[in-house]
Amino acid sequence: MKKFSTIALAFAFPLAVSVPALGQEAENSQVPALSSKCTFLPDAPDKHVVVKGDTLWGISGRFLQNPWCWPEVWGMNKEEIRNPHWIYPKQIVYFDRVNGRLRLANPLGEGGSQASGITKLSPQIRSLSNGGSEAISAIPNNLIEPYLSQPLIIEKDEFVNAPRIVAAPEGRVYMGKGDKVYVKGDLKSGTSFQVFRPGIALKDPDTKAIIGYEAVYIGAVKLERTAKTEDGVDSFLIVTSKEEMGIGDRLVPIPPTPIINYVPHAPEQELKARVVAVYGGVNYAGQNNIVSINKGSSSGIDVGTVLELGRFGKVIPDRTNDKKPIRLPDEMYGQLFVFRVFKNISYGLVMQVTDVVSVGDIVRTPVK
User: Fold this and answer.
1) How far is CA 67 from CA 92, 111, 179, 265, 353, in A?
2) 60: pLDDT confidence band, cut at 50, 70 and 90?
3) Contact, 221 vs 195, CB < 8 A?
4) Which of 185, 230, 260, 367 falls 20 to 30 Å from 8 in CA-CA distance?
5) How far is residue 227's CA from residue 238's CA, in Å, rounded to a whole number?
6) Could you give the CA distance from residue 84 to residue 12 in angstroms, rounded to a whole number?
7) What are the phi and psi torsion angles at 338 (to 5°)?
């Protein structure tokens, strides 16, 4: 099967350390050896000037066998990966061949102090309202933005306790934008909510237990008046409606706008998981599709985790020995980039695959 093209992804990454002149670090400190997976391409360029429209995944793919190894060749620690610093057009990525590392610098004449032909960067953090919008975007908005702001997953205990629409004026059953609805349940002091109804139940491929429900997003409501008695209801106004809301639909608080800071990294510990579902209810996924897996924050997964995709090796008869069954090796065919994490479920973007992704496939820590 032909190789799927690599998706253009962009990741924010820290500039928390000033960039030394090329070759200078070799004299100052011992540089840890890279893992076997994080090797440079034999034809890697000496440098790359960042331009608008570039992505960090695409840039690192110019230098590395595995683009997700960017943090390792940059020499980032865990805290640096989590800080929301940004990369901007006109900055230059250098290949420090002496130390086997990538370096970042501004072009000459754009601030900083000059050293060996490079302008050394100073630490910087820019807010989104003050220049952050000029930075290379994280993951393409058109691919994942809806999945960042909408619930996606309602875990089993959360669904049971979620506030629910119980009635509407004049005995109506279905309502749209501008209509009033009555809600019963603990709002926990919230005033703005998304409305959803449960979609397909997600079952763990290993235990067969239901671990959550995909949430079908319906719209948003805003609190107008709270209940005055214990048996009363809260009054809400429908402010947006993707489709008609009905009695029994559930409410979940609108999450804050996320600050995206995706830096690819392998899990800190050995991890094995399975593909639970392909978003949208189909059985197969390919390039740019979104899938859920049966591991989440409780298993140490966080945003930016990169995992290998594969499937179990087939069991076939050994034709050389009385046809006794033998198991072929597991076949790994691609990578998954995790962009949203729940307690027991995570969502990832399919990338760099040479085969289709099927429900039940293997997901594991990349082998180094």
Assistant:
1) 17, 29, 49, 10, 14
2) confident
3) yes
4) 367
5) 17
6) 7
7) -80, 125
Q: Are residues 227 and 312 in the same domain?
A: no
Residue indicated by tokens 């027991």: 344
Report the C-alpha gap between 368 and 33 in whole angstroms. Answer: 12
Using alpha carbons, select from 148, 105, 136, 132 the residue that is nearest to residue 8.
136
Q: For the purposes of burial, counting CB atoms within 10 Å of the CB of 205, is it exposed (0-12), middle (13-18) or buried (19 or more)?
A: middle
In a domain, 19, yes or no: no
127 and 157 in a single domain? The answer is no
Joined tokens for residue 323: 């046809």
- Look-up: residue for tokens 């009695």? 247
Tokens coding 1: 């099967």
Residues linked to residue 103 through DSSP beta bridges, in sequence order: 94
Among the candidates 253, 287, 320, a domain finishes at 253
- Look up the pTM and report it: 0.69
Largest CA distance in the chain: 80
State the Cα–Cα distance between residues 265 and 286, nearest whole angstrom. Answer: 22
Residue 279 belongs to domain with CATH number = 2.40.10.410
Lowest mean pLDDT: which of 103-112, 113-122, 164-173, 199-208?
A: 113-122
Domain span including residue 195: 147-253
Categorise residue 288: left if φ over 0, alpha if ψ from -120 to 50, beta otherwise.
Answer: left
Element (H, E) at 201: strand 192-203
Chain-centroid distance of CA 125 in Å reads 22
Beta bridge partners of 337: 306, 349
133 and 162 share one domain: no
